[in-house]
Amino acid sequence: MNLIKLLNQINIDQTITANPIHFLLFKESHFENLYMPMYWGGYGRLFNKEILNEFFKNEISYDEIIQAVDLTTLELPYQNEFLPLIKERLEEIKSLSEPVLNSEKMNILNSLILSSSAFISLPYIRKSIHKHELITLLALTEWEFWFQTCSGWGVSYTALTIKFNSIFDISELEIYLPYDELNQLLDKLQFQNEELYRNLESSKNIEESELFARLSNLNM
Q1: Binning pLDDT at 50, 70 and 90, where does residue 131 land?
Q2: DSSP classification of residue 123
Q3: Hey, CA dihedral for 74, 78, 80, 81, is it positive or negative?
Q4: What is the pTM of this model?
Q5: Model confidence pLDDT, tens digit, residues 163-184
Q6: Alpha-carbon distance 49 to 43, whole Å?
Q7: At what angle do helices 103-113 and 179-188 cross, to 10 degrees?
Q8: Secondary structure letter of residue 146 according to DSSP
Q9: CA nearest 130: which of 120, 115, 145, 140?
Q10: CA angle (30, 208, 143) in 5-degree steps
Q11: What average pLDDT does the segment 122-145 reach?
């Protein structure tokens, strides 16, 4: 899989498209408090689009990328952790076939694209993520999904849950969409599960900001 080619084709998140290091370190950038906020300037220059395109076309190796620069002149925080990690992810991405999205996954992506919310709530990890960033992640990784019911702190709710199978060791993401959007998505996917709809109905009249605040305290 040529990551640069696909990023240019998808071109959903401008930051990631312009600077692929934001995708290669997606987990560290968006999900881990240890590395946030993080400045990727040196990594962005070292693994720029031109260099990475050569890598994915087998015109240059990872070791040749590293040997071509003086690492001491670049600002590269956490080198011992990130350089081997980037190498591992680059090799895995190169070995992957281009992603194929079935109709169900396309319905999920369309729901995110058309969502009225620019930021999608991920209460389990107490974060929100811009929908363009999440869509880019889902467009370029292998993942499965299901719906689950969640309860606690006086809240019962239905969550879209994503499990990633490649590139990143990311824990399951529970995604919380507004009532109408999740209801429509369940209908499109023809999920015949009364409990999912019952939990969804119970959250219908809760303000989204209040729901996020309360669900962020759940230990699911």
Answers
A1: very high
A2: G
A3: negative
A4: 0.85
A5: 999 898 887 888 888 888 888 8
A6: 11
A7: 160
A8: E
A9: 120
A10: 40
A11: 89
